Amino acid sequence: MNNPAPSTRPPAIQIDDLTVAYNYKPVLWDIDLTIPEGVLMAIVGPNGAGKSTLIKSILGIIKPIAGSVQVFGKPYKKQVDKVAYVPQKGSVDWDFPTVALDVVMMGTYGGLGWIKRPGQKEKKRALEALEKVGMLSFRDRQISQLSGGQQQRIFLARALVQDAAIYLMDEPFQGVDATTERAIVNILKELRQSGKTLVVVHHDLQTVPEYFDWVTFLNVKSIASGPIRDIFNDDNLTKTYGINYKVATKG
Amino acid sequence: MELSDFFTNYTLRTITLGTAILGAICGMLGSFAVLRKQSLLGDAISHAALPGIALAFLFTGVKKQEILLLGALVSGLVGAFWIRSIVKHTRLKSDTALGLILSLFFGFGMLLLTYIQKLPNANQAGLDKYLFGQAATLVESDVWLMAGATGVSLLVLLLFWKELKLLLFDADYTQTLGFNTRFLDILITSFIVIAIVLGLQTVGVVLMSAMLLAPAAAARQWTNKLSTMIFLASVFGALAGVFGTAISASYDNLSTGPVIVLVAAVIVLVSFVFSPERGLLFREIRFRRNRKDLNRKKTLTFMYHIASDHADISHPHAIRILNNFQGYTRKTLNQLAERELIRIEGDQWAMTPKGYEEAATLYDQTPDPV
């Protein structure tokens, strides 16, 4: 089910010896992780395991104490156009004076660069992304008047507009209903089919084998990383969550 | 002072123009402070500017406006970026950092002011006008300076509009798109400091933050669009300047700065009560209307259950049987009848086919389109 790129190409994301600490206690400790191109990967681990921190470190939002991150063989700064980020919904103030379409348009800003304003072409792309997440009819809605699931879809649409090769998503399923979850999963699978690489912080262990084809177990250290069918088992879950885990690992 | 003087009196015209421009630039830049949740930044910076004024006087010995404001600018910038670095490098939250810098700089500034007052130098008096401002001292060159600064900040705002908007909404995301958020942050903070320094002469250290916050807070009530909000905030600021000056000129000995701030406060109050979408008044009206609407729907649903037990849905029933249900009054029944959802004949009611259909689909929710 995986179709890894030819071995001559560097992996989508290569992390070496990454250590991050906010104060004295390390949040991430000596992480080595290779994320091959074209996988749909879940990052799982308990609260405080450093899942969001890992994503933010890849994006250069958080500066590590040690270690390096390479995106397709180069530092992130040189690859900003290849990576799209879906932050946690709660990371912004949704009472900001703007409408849904405007937020999605922000996804085009990176490609435009400094000063240049978005035009009709960018607007068309934003509208297409809105349609893809089923939010076209909400394009002029003030963002505070959207439900949590709708806000999450707006964030997803904003990332889709970037048309990146790698998508990093921080808990896109948090606080959304079953319909929205299904819609988001379908979009994720579609993206994977078109050759994109997706890294998703995920909390619901039950759905991991169903939604993803690759998984990384994280708890400050990287416990294991690989294809779901090889490593998604009670042994690794127990190592990550520290309690005896019995998740029925369906074949 | 007569109203006609207002247009002919050169001094008054200069002061009015000055306070109007000051209000406009403060409204514009204050919107950024408010949306970045840095409302108190203005307060901290304006207090931080005080020691700069005193030190500039101590070092140069002259009381030239430009020199004193340059001192205020330097000390305001030092304060602003000190706050930034405290938040970044320690575990203190921004409110603590703001409070620390505010009191530290203001305390030092007051200390210097009292020291200056004891100097055997006839030239020293009057520095304390920067505490509460003295609009009467505005001259034409001050107004030109303000107009120039407003022009430049407007230009920068238009040039970096897209980037600044992005930064205001989602700073982390701005960074991941490859924009230099530090540059943008320094840019916007510097302009806020400039606006504050320009206002010290007119409004003073203590009240300056109100000039930044009040127009922006009022403008937010009237619109859901960032550009409209910033435009409105500038207009509100300018109006506060004009009316504040006019009122204070019409009554003797009313200090202009505080009157401007009070006018701005009135604009805030009106906006908080009367704005159509976010205002308290219309929210209360909407709330009552919804409650009535809910009561009507409850009554209709109750009738629906009774009617659906009968073969003929329009079979009449006594109004009395609604008695064990509290959601109706004569008025709500009449309203339902007006909409042809029910018919009322004497003390009997009957459901119309239209009402039956409406009640059946009342709280059906179609799922979000996917």
TrEMBL record, chain A:
ABC transporter domain ranges (all copies) = 13-245
Family of the protein in this entry: Belongs to the ABC transporter superfamily.
Query: Which InterPro entries does this one have?
Result: AAA+_ATPase, ABC_transporter-like_ATP-bd, ABC_transporter-like_CS, Metal_Ion_Import_ABC, P-loop_NTPase
Tree of life domain: Bacteria
Q: What protein am I looking at? A: Manganese/zinc/iron transport system ATP-binding protein
| Gene3D superfamilies, alphabetized | P-loop containing nucleotide triphosphate hydrolases (3.40.50.300)
Q: Which UniProt keywords apply?
A: ATP-binding, Nucleotide-binding, Transport
Protein's organism:
Neolewinella antarctica
GO MF entries: ATP binding
Q: Which PANTHER family match?
A: IRON TRANSPORT SYSTEM ATP-BINDING PROTEIN HI_0361-RELATED, METAL TRANSPORT SYSTEM ATP-BINDING PROTEIN TM_0124-RELATED
UniProtKB/TrEMBL annotation, chain B:
Keywords, A to Z, come to: Cell membrane, Membrane, Transmembrane, Transmembrane helix, Transport
| Annotated localization | Cell membrane
Q: How does it sit in the membrane?
A: Multi-pass membrane protein
**Superkingdom, natural source:** Bacteria
**One of this protein's Pfam families, by short name?**
ABC-3
List residues traversing the bilayer: 12-34, 40-60, 67-85, 97-116, 143-161, 186-214, 226-247, 259-281
The principal location of this protein is membrane
Q: Which family does it belong to?
A: Belongs to the ABC-3 integral membrane protein family.
Its name, as the record gives it, is Manganese/zinc/iron transport system permease protein
